[in-house]
Write a structure and sequence with these properties.
This protein is mainly beta. The protein is 10% helix and 49% strand. The chain has helices at residues 4-10, 54-62, 75-83; strands at 17-23, 26-32, 35-39, 44-49, 64-69, 99-101, 108-110, 115-127, 130-142, 150-151, 155-156, 167-173, 176-177, 182-190, 198-205, 210-217, 223-229, 237-245, 248-256. A seven-stranded antiparallel beta sheet has the order 2-1-5-8-9-4-3. It is elongated, with a radius of gyration of 26 Å.
Amino acid sequence: MIDPRGEAVRAFTTAVAFITTNGKRGPNVMAAEWTFAVSRNPFLISVHLSPKDATHDTIMEKGEFGISLVGEDQVAAMGFAGHFTHHETDKLSSELFETYSAKKIDAPMIKGCPVNLECKLVQQVSMGDHTAFVGEVVEIAIDPAKRPIAYRHGAYQLGSRIERAHGIGVAVTPRVCKPGSDIAIDGELTCMERSGRDVDVSLESGSGVKLVAGSSRTDEQGFFDLKLKVPADVSRGDCRIVARHETSEGGARLTVS
C-alpha cells in the first residue's frame, strides 16, 4: 500500500546537500534533502535530520557542520552518502569524495560543489521525527561553473529558465471602499523591455464604462504605482481596475460599498 505522506513529501522539489562533520568517530558525510536557506542577514541555513542519523549526534556534540550543495556530476556520490551510515561505514574513504579542510570549522568540505558553506550551530528545534539544526554561515565558497541539482523523486538537472510571459499584474488597496475614497494601485509589467514603460490605468464600472483614469511609468524592474480617487457619485457595486500597456492588459477587482 502506498504511503500518501511519503508520496507527498517526495513531490516537493528541493536541493540536496552533503552535510559534513568531524566528531569523536572521525570525519563523515551524509546526503540531506531537507536543507534550506532561512535567513539572509544573518545568513542562516536549516538542515533537518533524523535522530537516527550519525550526523545528528555529531552536530549536537561539535556545534558546527559543513554544507556542500550537490552538483550535477555528483549524483553517484550523493546516493552513496545517503545509502550508508557512519554507524557502520567510513564513507569518506570512498574515492567518490575529494575533500579539503574547512577554514573556520573542524570538518572536511566536499570539493567540486556549486556552493560550500561552513556553519556554526545557533539553534536546534525538535520537529516531529526530525530535528531542525539552524547554522549561521561563517565561510562561503562558490564555484559558478558548477550547477546544483533539483531533487524530486530522484535527481534532475535544473534545465532552462522559464521566462514569464508578456503581461501585467495589478492590485488595488483597499479592495472595498466608499465613494470618494482614495485608492492605491500597485502593478508589475512582465516583459523583456519593462523599464521606463508607460502604463495606462483606469477605474471602470462593471459594465466597462471608464470612470477615472491615470498613468504611471515603470521603474527598472517593471514595477509601477499610482493613486486614484473614486468619484463621489459612483454607483455602488463591483468595479474593475484595468492596467494596459501595448497589447497587454491586467485587472484587479474593486467593490464600492
